[in-house]
Write the structure tokens for this entry.
Amino acid sequence: MITAIIGSITISFIAILYITLVLGLPYGEFAMGGKYTVMPKSMRVMCAISVFVQIFAMIILLQTGNVLATKIPDNVAKIGCYVFAAYLVLNTIMNAISKSKKEKYIMTPLAAITAICFFITAMGA
């Protein structure tokens, strides 16, 4: 399903951003309210955990879209897809009200597109 592929690409961009934050690169304005240019070490742990969650979400999405086969039961993957879609809707709202212009204008549409891809993929499964 094309939406699974598109969603996996968009969530990959988000994961790559978070990897740069874990590494201490100055892209903090794109995440977590844009409060920090470089994430403090304590926040980098949260960013690292987020990367693993995003990779798991991508696996769920690709399985639900019949692009990837895993040992996760299909009904669990579909439910997971809906859960991540709902999370991404909340994430889109939080990005939209961010004080950071970079987060607001770049991450909001990216999260919205990803949420839509998760919803469409789950509905089509």
